[in-house]
Amino acid sequence: MRNESGRKEPGLDDAIASVRDDVAPAGAAEAAAARAWERIAPLPRGLAPSVEAITGCGDVLALLPAHRRGELSTARALLVEDHLRDCVSCRKAFLQPARGQLALLPWRASTASTTLAPRRMKPYAVAASILLAAAASAWAVREAFFAVPAGSRAAVQSVTGGLQRVAAEATVRLTPGAEIGEGEPVRTGGASRAVLRLRDGSLVEMGERAELTVTARGQDTTIHLARGQIIVQAAKRRTGHLRVASGDCTVSVTGTVFSVNNGLKGSRVSVFEGSVRVAGLGEEQVLSPGDQWATSAAMEMVPLREEIGWSGDVDRHLALLSEMKVLRDRLRTVPTPGIRYESRLLGLVPEDAVIFASAPNYGQALAEAYRLFQERLQESAVLREWWAQADPKRHGGPDLATVIEKVHGFSGFLGDEIVLAAIDTGTPRRVVPLVLAEVRKPGLREFLESELARLPLAGDRHPVTIVGEGEVPAPSAPGGGIFILLRPGLMAVSVDGADLPQLAARLDGAEAAPGLDRTPFGARVAESYANGVGLLFAADLQRMSARLAAGAPDARRDQALHRAGIDGLHYLVVERKQAGEESRTEALLAFDGAPRGIASWLAAPAPMGALDFVSPTAQAAAAFVAKSPALIFDDLVSIAGASGGASEEIASLESKLDLHLRGDLAETLGGEFALALDGPLLPTPSWKLVVEVVDPARLQSSLEVLVRRANEERAREGRTPLVLESEEAGGQTYHVLRGAGLPVEVHYAFAEGYAVAAPSRALVMRALQSRESGDTLARAASFRALFTPDRDVNVSGLVYQNLGPLVRTMLDAPGAGALTEEQRRSFDALSRDTRPTILCAYGEPSAVRVAGLGGVFDLDTTDLALPMLLERVIGPRLPGRTSAAGTP
User: Fold this and answer.
1) Alpha carbon distance 770, 612 (integer Å)
2) Residue 643 pLDDT greater than 60, yes or no
3) From the CB of residue 388, how many other CB atoms can be counted at a distance below 10 Å?
4) Is residue 693 part of a domain?
5) 477 and 512 part of one domain
6) In a domain, 695, yes or no
7) Residues 32 and 94: beta-carbon distance below 8 Å
8) pLDDT tens-place string over residues 795-848
9) What distance lies between CA 845 and its chain's CA centroid?
10) Tell me: the pLDDT tens digits for 675-700?
11) pLDDT by residue (tens digit) across 767-799?
């Protein structure tokens, strides 16, 4: 088809061609062609007309029957097809052979405005209308999804070294701010990096000697990576896709961070955040954070931090962590609401609540925290650069300043506590959320109406309905919007219109239904208030699991949960409150009676002799007291037996090993275990493992049997054997297990009812000396000062960390010479003023309690920076890495 200027419209012709190619099934087409041929065939069937040359429409029309039957030569068929693409009349004759040909008449306007009798539209007109509609739809689809959008594809954000636009005749050096157009190749030089910002906000960091082009079709953008490595921080988008094509694989993403490395051996994809879909090697799979995938077996997997070690973002991440530490210290100075010892709202919550969460009114504290954040934002360029990317307003979200202002204004009308509850309606409908708060000053309705007036309408009404004092709400369908009930001194927010009248009656006092405070669950919540609460979360796990089991019965599942002791869970209660200058967090997992299965493995609080082998300078330690390992073994067998066949498999294994797993291994152990990082991290981490042993001779004999059986299997496979040796020194017997590809040697000794293991004999000897001298972590005053005050003398388990000194020690290590001055300053700032923390667990007769002070539940910035320091500076020197490109 041609436009007014006589030029072809390729979009419409392509659409018509696609419609033309959408033919009926083969059998129907052949039958129709046969019937048509009987009426119009000018020659005997099976004979192609003798047209010497195709000079016009007449010759093409004569050849159409033969072409339809597939009797034309390839060259002649191509000529006919080419003519049919440009000639509407011949194409119509080809598509509709049974119809006569119509002469095209010039269009004339009607001469009078007369009323025409309705006429039946002719079939060819219907067909023409359908064809035009399909063509128009195809053209619209093409414009929406396949058209080349106008404008540039990317802009240069930063350059370190050199970045060039590569052209056929010459190259052009690019600087920050330069635009990159459709399909324009750009390339970084040696020892160079560059960051490009795509039109959707995604960032592409190019490594040295990387070359790529960017194309766009409709809402989709594709990065064509010709060579080199890039790191992509893909922006979240509502429509379209971002893809990276490297020649042998294609990566499709949205809102994630990943790396693609395209080299001579192939391509390697590494994922850091989110997930990506990779298509290559004839397969397609989804990669999650930490995953790595390559198109060639010649490429080994490498640590993710090593894969992007060239990135300039490492320094920015370190600097940002330092700024976050400063900001966090400032935010700690913000006054927070005090501890609450009672709740007027507890009795107003319906007794069917399965979740109860309570928080103080943080409106004023939130406003003060935002003020401090803005102050620090003006002082720190690093923080401003981060906020320029993280600000939700930049990505189409709300303005944080406006949100804080609205929250602060709204909170000024409310009391000291806000409660969120989840109500079990007992019907197939979902659990219904309910928010309750006290109202301490008038004007709340006017404030809400003013804010609601700015909201868009949901159909012909607001999505939020206010039911004021004295108003009786009419019941409505569930999920019909948000309802705010205002009563004297009270506010309730619900999304369940069906139960709205009952809720209003409860708040008005007209309905004397019992509240949550009259139930056992409510009594447990009230117990927390008696001790004082800040933040409180409680869940009735027993009722929730019963509701789940009733909705989807499954006998095998219920049996497995019973064997594991999960079905005995009753309540979960998590509390956090301020205790002086420290925050205290406690979690309680309560059971309906004595814990069973896995939940019963943690023993009651008891002395921990295993910690006497750990020095006071340990950087980290974890220790716990468990019930008898033999009973734990029985529980594991019972849980595995729920799936069937476990007993037979264990019997077969014991026969193969010539060992009784329970008697020869589990029964030789006591219930104490400790693992610590106690000494230098380089060249081999100074770990210690301490296990209580009740029968050292039997355990050693069992280990020798295991090594002997393993070596017999390795000999059959032609692999090197394990070596277990023993040697006496200073009246103490030391054992070592080495060889067979073990990453480190394992040295151990039995002393005073414990087995002490470490990667070297020297560390084992120092552990024994700590025990003998009494200079241990368990007896250090700084360690004991970290425990939360309670009635218990001992704990059942603990996790301790003091990583600040470790970071400072590593900054003086030989490998730290690779750090830049900026990196050194960042790590030094992160390690300054760090404090040790401890998290303790208590096994109680019908509960497990976890408690800690300070940053136990809040990861310190030093903890976040340590893995980065390990990977960035001394990762290649850690055990198990043969080179910078090796695998762990």
Assistant:
1) 7
2) no
3) 9
4) no
5) yes
6) no
7) no
8) 999 999 887 776 666 666 555 555 566 666 666 665 665 678 888 999 988 888
9) 37
10) 999 988 767 788 999 999 999 999 99
11) 999 999 999 999 999 898 888 878 888 999 999
153 inside domain: yes
> Is residue 739 left, alpha or beta, with left meaning phi > 0 and alpha meaning psi from -120 to 50?
left
| Terminal CA-CA length for the chain | 63
d(CA 69, CA 44): 13
Cα separation values, 556 from 552, 559, 562, 563, 598, Å: 12, 5, 10, 11, 18
> Does the residue 92 lie in any domain?
yes
> Measured between alpha carbons, how far is 884 from 37 in angstroms, rounded to an integer?
75
Specify whether the CB–CB gap between 1 and 138 falls below 8 A.
Answer: no
CA separation for the pair 524, 513 (Å, rounded): 20
CB 717, CB 733: distance < 8 Å: no
Residue 79 has pLDDT above 80, yes or no: no
**CA distance linking residue 485 with residue 493, whole number of Å:** 6
Return d(Cα 831, Cα 583) in angstroms, integer. Answer: 21
What range does the domain containing 244 cover?
148-308
As given in the structure block, the two tokens for residue 6 are 């006589």
pLDDT at residue 827, as a whole number: 62
Do 137 and 65 share a structural domain? yes
DSSP one-letter string for 736-768: EEEETT-SS-EEEEEETTEEEEESSHHHHHHHH
Query: Taking every pair of C-alpha atoms in the chain, what is the biggest distance, in angstroms?
Result: 124
Q: At what angle do helices 381-390 and 313-331 cross, to 10 degrees?
A: 100
**Element counts in the chain: helices (H) and strands (E):** 24, 35
Say if CB 256 and CB 271 are below 8 A apart: yes
CA distances from 494 to 222, 491, 514, 555, 708 (A): 45, 10, 19, 36, 68
* Whether residue 350 is found in the same domain as residue 468: yes
Tens digit of each residue's pLDDT (9 = 90 or more) over 301-352: 887 667 766 776 666 655 666 677 677 777 777 788 888 999 989 988 888 8
Average pLDDT over every residue of 658-664: 87
Average confidence (pLDDT) over 536-542: 91
Which residue type occupies 676?
A
Give the three-state DSSP class for 561.
helix
Contact between residue 183 and residue 152 where contact means Cβ atoms under 8 Å apart: no
- Taking the CA atoms of residue 252, residue 255, residue 259 and residue 264 in that order, the dihedral angle to the nearest 10 degrees is 20
Helix (H) or strand (E) holding 83: helix 74-86
Are 586 and 850 in contact by the 8 Å Cβ rule? The answer is yes
Q: Which helix (H) or strand (E) holds 263?
A: strand 257-263
Same domain, 63 and 89: yes
Spatial CA neighbour of 834 closest among 808, 873, 799, 812 = 808
Residue 844 one-letter amino acid: E
d(CA 513, CA 303): 61
Any idea what the Cα angle at residue 443 is, between residues 439 and 449, rounded to 5°?
105
Tokens of 827: 């790590």
- Average pLDDT of the chain to the nearest whole number: 77
